[in-house]
Specification:
286 residues, alpha/beta, TIM Barrel, eight-stranded parallel sheet, 12 helices
Length: 286
């Protein structure tokens, strides 16, 4: 089967720290030497994708200096990393809606410099509600600008939903119900609901999928063996779901290992084809 991994993370070598590499080894079981080879040169990642017959990966980036310790320098570094193979390494750029007064200006810069396939927002690490543009939610005008930019440039916005274990994260922002307002107020916005609200809000995620045709589920961060436990009816919305490994993360030391686990689930072949490739190829314009 053809495969697009619609959600991985990568900190290029010039930014990654020894403490981060140590954390990956201890908690994610990621070989630090292997990670450094990938982080050092995008050609090494493409060679890895070729070895395991993976068409493309979407590489996430986002600034979260007060929670994760990195800012716009990570976004630029990932943009540079992916720029040599934009047909295989899909760049998801980002801005910080709380710290950026003129996000459109920053997004225009990124869009003109790199091939942008999507915008990543992480409410749990950037500490905001996706519907905070509403007057009753604080009137954060920067979100309106980001969403309109995505519509005008025909790129999706991917939202982290669900929890995070990092010490400064605020998990209340991970409830996907806030996307109900966004999908309603911006019906032309393509929304990717990453992680499906795991491990708390899966029923909310399914409700949103049924209610809003402009929302797509990204199953990254969900152990494949628990996929049908979390989403018993996933066969019914396989054409609205796409595979993501969330590499590197707990239980995901390699991308190909996560794909193998997914292939070993009891989903139908048709559902696997849709989730592994067809949905992402349409949404991310392979």
């Amino acid at each position: 089967m053809r495969v697009i991994d619609a959600h991985i993370h990568l900190i290029p070598e010039k930014i990654v720290s020894t403490s981060v590499l140590s954390l990956m080894q201890r908690f994610f079981q990621v070989d630090p030497e292997f990670y450094l080879q990938i982080a050092r040169n995008p050609n090494n990642l493409v060679s890895y994708l070729d070895r395991y017959n993976i068409d493309a990966v979407a590489v996430m980036s986002y600034p979260a200096p007060d929670v994760m310790g990195w800012g716009d320098e990570l976004v630029e570094a990932v943009g540079e990393y992916t720029s040599s193979h934009p047909d295989r390494l899909f760049f998801f750029c980002s801005v910080h809606p709380r710290f950026e007064d003129k996000p459109t200006k920053k997004l225009e810069h990124l869009y003109s410099k790199y091939e942008v396939r999507g915008i990543k927002l992480h409410p749990v690490h950037q500490l905001f509600k996706p519907n905070a543009y509403l007057p009753e939610e604080g009137g954060m005008h920067t979100l309106e600008e980001i969403y309109q930019f995505a519509i005008d440039h025909d790129v999706p916005v991917l939202f982290h939903t669900g929890t995070s274990v990092f010490p400064r994260a605020r998990n209340k922002y991970g409830d996907p119900i806030f996307l109900d307002d966004v999908a309603t107020d911006y019906p032309k916005l393509e929304i990717i609901m990453s992680h499906g609200g795991r491990p708390i809000w899966m029923k909310t995620s399914v409700f949103l999928l049924r209610r809003h045709p402009n929302i797509t589920l990204d199953i990254s961060g969900i152990p494949p063996k628990k996929l049908t436990e979390y989403f018993p009816d996933i066969e019914k919305f396989a054409d609205r779901s796409m595979f993501g490994s969330d590499w590197p993360s707990p239980g995901v030391p390699t991308i190909h290992g996560n794909i193998e686990q997914f292939l070993n689930t009891e989903l139908s072949t048709q559902a696997k084809e849709k989730i592994l490739f067809e949905t992402a190829s349409k949404k991310l314009k392979l």
